[in-house]
# Entry
Amino acid sequence: MTLLNTEDILVEVKGQVMYLTLNRPDRLNAFSPEMLTGMKQSLTEAKNDESIRVVVLKGAGRAFSAGGDVKQMGTRGSLGTYDHIGVFNELIMQMSNLEKPIISAVHGYAAGAGFNLALASDMILASEESRFILSFSKVGLISDGGGLYFLPKLIGPYLAKELFFSAEPLSAEKAHKLGIVNHIYDSNGFEEKVDKFANEIASGPSMAYGLIKKMVNLSLTASLPEILEQERITQATLVTTKDHQEGIQAFREKRQPQFGKD
# Structure
């Protein structure tokens, strides 16, 4: 596999985990067209490479991402803004459709569209000093990048509207209490904790995980009868897989299953 490394996005594969590092530390990893394009291309690589079982998003330097680049605001105009957000929307849909877990590892600030990028992942791990802020209203804008879809479903419409209106920062602890963050880790050793978590997920039954992700996402818009039927069809498929047989054998032998092994 050819890895795409540019000035704005760094790609590294370690074992079964692909790490995508937003790499504009001097701009707090604010998005650039090259960064968005690089993430899209890398997720395509992850989709097509069966050896990659988990994707981790993280930021270089002092922050996860400040989201939109303030220096570019007011310069794109209406059409340029429409096109730029269209590219970001393609990335969000690609993240949602990738049938592999995506983990956002947040340290420092996840602000604006950077917060929404994290919300589009499947799990968020946060360092204790991280802060989450929906800063759009401070510059007279609405949230974009799926924030108006993800956050109300996660914490309810009333709390979501308050956060969109107030643009008040959330501490890692508050974000955890609201169900936004899965785990909080000490700042010291944060990367090691993220690596350990990602590799534990990568050792699981990847096909089942991909279908779990697909169906949980579907449940946000589907009816109960639709989900019940999808569960029925999917389970009938999964019982024929090597991972299922390995899981049964490991249970009988009282050992940890070795999924994904021939």
